[in-house]
Amino acid sequence: MNERVKEKLEILSDAAKYDVSCSSSGSNRKNTKGGLGNSNGVGICHSYTEDGRCVSLLKILLTNHCIFDCAYCVSRRSNDVKRAAFTVQEVVDLTINFYRRNYIEGLFLSSGIFKDVDYTMERLVRIAKELRTKHKFNGYIHLKAIPGASDELIHEAGLYADRLSVNLEIPSEMSLKKVAPEKNYKEVYKPMNYLTGAIQGFKEEKTAIRSTPKFAPAGQSTQMVIGATPENDLTVLNLADNLYQQQQLKRVYYSGYVPISSDNRVPTLKQPPVIRENRLYQADWLMRFYEFKVDEIVNEVHPELDLELDPKAAYALRNPHLFPIDVNNATYHEILRVPGVGVRSAKKIVSARRHGKLRFDNLKKIGVVLKRARFFITCADKEFNLLGKDPLVIRQIFTAPSRQKAGFNQLSLFG
Amino acid sequence: MVLTYDGTFEGLLSAIFETYRLKIAVAEIIPKDEWQNSLFEHPTHVATNEEWAKRVLIGVQKKSSKKATKLLYHCFLSELPGISMLIFDFIKKSVNSNIDITDNFGDDTVLQLHQIKKKIGREVHRMHAFVRFQCTKDDIYYSVIEPDFNVLPLLNDHFEKRYPAQEWLIYDVKRHYGIFYNKDKTEYITFEDDTQLQYRQLNESVLDESEPEYQILWKSYFDNVNIPERRNMKLHLQHVPKRYWKYLSEKRAQF
Hints:
Chain A is α/β, with parallel strands linked by helices. Chain A has 15 helices and ten strands.
């Protein structure tokens, strides 16, 4: 047993765990002859940690030696922690052998900055290259694009990785400078902009020339730490919306700040802001899958998400004049906006009503959460006498304490 | 009248064909093994007829769609009590309808089948996730499972695509058969004596010498990516129900 590798793995997985990105989906890499692995549209979560997060990729740092001193980060220069560094070969071995045993979907590789930015980026790229070319590895690879890295290295990374991510870390530049003196938005946006352009370029070329190689087929993502700095939800979600629209990001991750240090540049929290984080994800989902515009979720009048209500219910209660809607002839877009109706239910409703008018019972069986939806819809047989109730009353029903078991403060997505 | 069949999908379809051929009304169609003797009924056994089975499938496909035949096959693998009759119901409704009924979620039979298929799909996905291979001395990657439903026939495609260059074996210890891939194609296999496979962990003497190391490394990785400040066992259990823990080497208490 190589004790040294085990110790390194302990240190460098522990340091990587605060990056919340876990997805292994959205790529389309087929296996090659004699190769190992593939990654198709759906991701697979191979396990779940006791904090309820999925384990899909081998998520490690190449090293936690770092020349930067970012207050929110456990690996910052001034923090007194054990340091370690993997060799290229060790990372390759772990990835291949974990993958062969069906433990993981692939590798998520990040790193502290040692020596300088390009030196670090070059190492990350080398590992991805070795996996792809020498070991014919076709599983998922997520690489960090290090802010400030040169375009050439970012380009090469895109040729081997499925997804690249540059973390914004803090939702405003002013706060970022306060907590991470060596970082700025310019350096973060530089690789991000390059990737946006390159991904777009390769895609266009691919439609013309089929043999064009893949370039980061699962796109790019980013992460923001929530609760370490004073930005409100309006700022956070506007920034996220901007990243989705302008940079065509696939995902923005929100990481509730886990008080990992006693650094006086960041607040001391008793507990990570898990409910706020959950509400942000719900809002994010509304923007990406429910055809919501960002200003329908948060705006100048309501700059913060309601912690007691999911953002869709909050929207419905703020706009009582839009409801009820009739599920038998409303558009898909309108049905999506009903609290208690998910994407799947909405699709089923649209598909099933072609065979006949839908009744209360049908909706129930389709999977609509009528406990919530009943306030906002009509169907063939029931007028729902509860309708017309004051939004304030509905709000009380939705947030009644009996719904939440004492002791649990994290809600499931759109439960 | 009660019809029995040999427990295969083709057998069920043959029995259904028989109801049309003889124009009989049946009270029940049931696998032979599940039939419990009754004083008043003497079931008629229908032998499997590949030709008939094919004709039923083609009929369903014509009336409804290819999606419908897939739906029926997946639901059949659930082995749930009453699944035979549900499939029969669907076929009757399909035959009597002029349009594809596969997405008529307002219909009870259709909806029930879709719900069962969803369960099957979930189990398949869980097997994709929770199968853990152990490498043996002769380089076969080996895994033992006991899924809730008979999903083994739905697993080979995924694992063939993922591991085309390694030999692997997945054995269903509950249903006493497995699939073995020899780098070329997948075959069904049965071991005459699979009692020792009841122990999910293979004996160290047959394992590759590096195998225990990787299991320890994986367990240590798993323990270290957890963030104790965010502990949420309710969510954890929702994702990994306890009955699946037996598959997962990282959930074993010790080595």
